[in-house]
Structure prediction request, 102 residues.
Amino acid sequence: LSQFNHRIVEADDLEQASLLVNVWDIDVIVLDGQFLDEPDKYLRSLAQNPELVELPLVILDVVSAQAANTIEGLSVFPCLISDSKEEISQLCQVISIAANHH
Prediction:
């Protein structure tokens, strides 16, 4: 993603994400919720975190995107892609759009 002038910082959970937001200048959260057991519960917890709720949320799976759209306060940018090179380029475009709305 460096060719698109983006860097990725990965967090294992919301607590770690909150810490990273305080250390780095994070523009966007990218969430692939396909492995979340309860995306709705996870996203509600995210929405209650003052550091994280302010950031645009690029979501890569349908279930999490649907859940996020029902939670007030989240700025959701769905990007439903696979791993192909062309679709990664689309992801970078969505990240740029979301970052510009921040």
